[in-house]
Design brief:
Two copies of one chain form a homodimer. Chain A is an alpha+beta fold. The first copy, chain A, folds into two domains: about 170 residues, PurM-like C-terminal domain (Phosphoribosyl-aminoimidazole Synthetase, Chain A, domain 2, Alpha-Beta Complex), CATH 3.90.650.10; about 120 residues, 60s Ribosomal Protein L30, Chain: A. In chain A, about 30% of the residues lie in helices and about 25% in strands. The first copy, chain A, contains twelve helices and 14 strands. Chain A has a six-stranded mixed beta sheet with strand order 10-12-7-13-11-14. The first copy, chain A, has a five-stranded mixed beta sheet with strand order 2-3-6-4-5, covered by helices on one side. Chain A has a two-stranded antiparallel ribbon with strand order 8-9. In chain A, a hairpin with a 2-residue loop joins strand 8 and strand 9. The longest helix of chain A has 17 residues. The N terminus of chain A is likely disordered. Strand 1 of chain A pairs parallel with strand 5 of chain B, so a sheet runs across the interface.
Chain lengths: ~350, ~350
């Protein structure tokens, strides 16, 4: 979910600036930006009176019928081309959980708790056992997040998908107290940024990864697993970790690090007079990222825009709350600070600028 | 949305019995049934306590937070292979409306009013002007149905879709007073069945249609238009017509005639001791259906299962309300009756059995 705009993915098109890494992976960022602009014109022409678009700069909120203090929050997303790796390796039990957890995190940034989820599975040739494995992953993650799997659609479309291919998307609906929606204006210089660890690429950067690691390498050993297994590592839900942290610390704003990486996702959680300064030495980077950076000779900007580089979710907390926040859940650590920003300065700085 | 099960489409897989017409169109009904059975096992193992699955036999309901008398209703669907015709003819402005109206009708059968919609658009190669035309169709139909277009996702996945291909799916969320959810038990022998006219195939039967009408014929004149235009005729929303009818007649149960046709969709609106008897002479059949039946030499069962054959939506009303119901909206007419059913008899009979 992106603020004031429709999401665009493609493991790439979410990032609004052209990068060499994306271009090399065959995804057109300029086209993505143009599509978003065209979509925004539609919304400008008409939106429903119960949409709460302007609230905190986040889209996707709708006034809960009969309750002026709460809002429904909805988000649609797909797994992206991670599914091509799953299909090639015939590992069907995790992409459903990738999708659900991605969506849970997307609405968690506005503090929403999930209510229900619906999936859309499109296949070239319906293999019931495969479809059931995929949906079982959706169901498992829904259960883990206390989210109903309310429905779904399985579409067999032989003319559109190759026999062994499939696409998987889903929609989550959650609920939030409107007064609990984070306000980026509350963020001030001196606040700390807590990072929650990623376990791998999650659901972004796969067009790039697939351009750098060919399928014939996916069974190669890497970091104690195969490269394919490392690439398929399951996108975690941060819901429980965030709720644990909020019991002990005041959380001012949050960001799910998806397409666009730290560089593009963190700015939405900051007022324009603030910047986020990260110290990369403060968190461990899973080996797959070093491998991708090395193979692609990715620049500083490329790596932190195309990949999450080890941080899956960020939270801005008052400095005095930072130790308690970092101690509230495994793997959480202070990864940076909010500083004053002069006009024209970037909103995200990552040291060292290697 | 189907009762007590996840939906399955593919312009075909929604129909739970193998038919020759489907088989000829390359879609595997048996596989669809097996997938549904496997999905049902997942739901049986765990479902969320706020899911109202058993209510009236319809799935997809979730208790509205903080309001014990209302429920949210959600449904996910795709346009199916109708998009392959749209892509070939480069007509991008109607499939979005097909999708929204299909979803509006799907939740209308439980009497829900739409709240909001989210779309999922997946493309091989992102062409912003094309994507914007597709989403403009979504936006237009949302506005026409007073439904917020709350968000969406556009995914560019060159490895999964051919450059000129796309897939379009969406999720609708609506709200209903739980006491207004139709109860099929209220339907009794002697009730009348009102039919609302279809304008064409709507969003089902396209695998079959494409097997019978090759792309090189889509520009051929047919019934004052081209065959392609006839095939792309926009799936209408029945929301306004149904609400108009409910002002003057008691509506006991309703059915959206999608994949499976009259034969598979109407039974869900009936108790097991009742059958629906249709008189085909009572409604006009758009010429495209006769053309498809002739070309495919479709049997009685095939035509009424793969195609809507001119009826897009049915409503069961008390006999004494039938004239008022039929007079409440253009095109509505009495198309059949509910009769007592003996065990073993079919639940839908269509005369004449040509």
């Amino acid at each position: 979910m992106r603020p004031r705009e429709r999401t665009l993915r493609g493991d790439a098109s979410e990032a609004p600036v052209v990068t060499d890494a994306y271009g090399r992976a065959g995804v057109d960022i300029a086209a993505g930006n143009e599509a978003v602009e065209r979509y925004q014109k539609l919304s400008a022409a008409w939106s429903h009176p119960d949409q709460l678009d302007s609230l905190g700069g986040f889209g996707g909120l709708f006034r809960l019928p009969g309750d002026s203090k709460r809002a429904l929050v909805a988000s649609t997303d797909g797994v992206g081309t991670k599914i091509l790796i799953a299909a090639e390796l015939q590992r069907y039990d995790t992409v459903g959980a990738d999708l659900v957890n991605h969506c849970v995190n997307d609405i968690l940034v506005v503090n929403a708790d999930p209510l229900f989820f619906l999936d859309y599975l499109a296949v070239g040739k319906l293999q019931p056992a495969v479809a059931a494995q995929i949906v079982a992953g959706v169901h498992r993650a829904c259960r883990d997040n206390n989210c109903a799997l309310l429905g779904g659609e399985t579409a067999e479309m032989p003319g559109l998908y190759a026999p062994e291919h499939f696409d998987l998307a889903g929609t989550i609906v959650g609920v939030v107290q409107i007064e609990d929606v984070p306000r980026r204006e509350d963020v001030i210089p001196g606040d700390a940024i807590i990072g929650l660890p990623s376990v791998g690429l999650h659901t972004n950067g796969y067009a790039l990864a697939r351009s750098l690691i060919a399928p014939d390498e996916w069974k190669t050993q890497f970091a104690g697993l195969t490269l394919g297994e490392v690439l398929l590592a399951e996108h975690p839900s941060y819901h429980a970790a965030v709720r644990a942290m909020q019991k002990t610390a005041r959380v001012k704003s949050m960001s799910h690090i998806t397409g666009g990486g730290l560089l593009e996702n963190v700015p939405r959680t900051l007022p324009s007079n603030a910047k986020a300064v990260f110290e990369a030495a403060r968190w461990p980077v899973p080996p797959i990222f070093d491998e991708l950076c090395r193979r692609g000779n990715l620049s500083h900007t490329e790596r932190y825009r195309a990949l999450n580089m080890g941080i899956g979710y960020t939270l801005v907390v008052p400095l005095e709350d930072a130790p308690r926040a970092a101690g509230a859940t495994a793997g959480a650590r202070v990864v940076g600070w909010v500083e004053a920003r002069d006009q024209g300065e970037p909103q995200v700085v990552i040291h060292p600028a290697r």
